[in-house]
Amino acid sequence: MNRIKQILSSSFFQRICYSLLLLILIYTFACDLGHIWSVSSYGIPYFLLYVIPMLILLHQIVFNNLIGWWILFALYLIFAVLGMIISVCGVMVDMGVKYDGFDIFMVILIELIVYLVVGFCLYFIKPR
Known about the structure:
single chain; 128 residues; mainly alpha; 5 helices; globular
């Protein structure tokens, strides 16, 4: 367990994780160029939803400090909470449509698990 903590707390490993996240964002940004100025369900243009996390991740790759991590983690928490609220509200709006209750529950549960796993991963690569 100490070896895992040592690996997670190393600056090199953290920078690799931030770089992988940045590459994923760049890929999704490049795939979505046709709709980049459209407004998301959050009411914010997609351009800002991509650029702001990219800038924070670039900051973490270069400096890897606690302030940047807190900003990134706060942004993640806001995104996760709003994502869950929008998902649950979307399900409630579609209640007139015949869905199986178990299917809806499983989709929301899987979304929640993904958000929690990503949150734990971000938490464990916090700079010391």
